[in-house]
Amino acid sequence: SFWGCQKEDLGNQDGIFSDTVQAGPVAQMTARINDVPWEGSSYNLTLVPGSPGQIVITGESDNGQTVSLVVNNSKPGDYLISKLSAGVASYSPDSTATITYKSNDSALTGRVINVDSIDTANLVMSGEFNFIGGAKGTKSLMTITDGNFVNLGYINSAANTQFAAKVNNKSWNPDKVSSSISGNVITITAINANGTKMVLSFPLATKVSKIGYPI
Predict the structure, then answer these.
(1) How far, in Å, CA of 209 to CA of 127, rounded?
(2) Could you report the per-residue pLDDT of 149-204, keeping only the tens digit for each?
(3) What backbone torsions phi and psi does residue 180 show, to the nearest 5 degrees?
(4) What residues contact residue 185 under an 8 Å CB cut-off, 6+ apart?
(5) Which of 12, 94, 107, 140 lies 20 to 30 Å from 187 when distance is taken between CA atoms?
(6) pLDDT at position 97, please?
């Protein structure tokens, strides 16, 4: 669970970030972890509308290293992350998440997540992040710099009720809908109350449109 978050006026951030330009369909999430390049090969991104709402971004590299960003707001802006703030960023060096370095571990950790733009027409989001993460019970720190997420497709959780189907001519409506992107393939998973699951996988389109995909 996550706490509420208030947007803080950080003033001119040009010294830290340059604006991310959404040019073309390329979607990527990259960073440097202790100055070693990291790139997500798959990611999940969810926007929960509301006041303030929430944005959750998780990227995983081919070797299982995971970067997760949580902003308790649903609008573009610069958000401080620290031991005293609600937002949090974390890094796990492997898929087991046995050790997780979090931005709210101590007074030495934290920094900022910038949500630069949210394209509600094409359902893509871009921004930057930098943070220092600490692992609970240790003095070890991980420094994540030059973080970028560009044109990542997101799911608007308020639109989940738009997913519906008929199974053997009977209406089927899920209680939970999530999505993930790996390479150039998007996978949508819908689950209803009794655990029945429907999974759709198809090539990622360059923009949102009504396109039919043969399966």
Answers:
(1) 24
(2) 999 988 877 765 567 777 876 767 777 777 787 877 888 888 887 888 999 888 86
(3) -145, 155
(4) 201, 202, 203, 204
(5) 94
(6) 75
pLDDT tens-digit map of 102-120: 999 999 999 999 999 999 8
136 closest CA partner among 81, 164, 98: 98
Q: Which two structure tokens, joined as six digits, stand for 152?
A: 């990542």
pTM of the model: 0.68
Peptide bond preceding 37 in cis form (omega within 30 of 0): no
Query: CA 91, CA 142: separation in Å to the nearest integer?
Result: 8
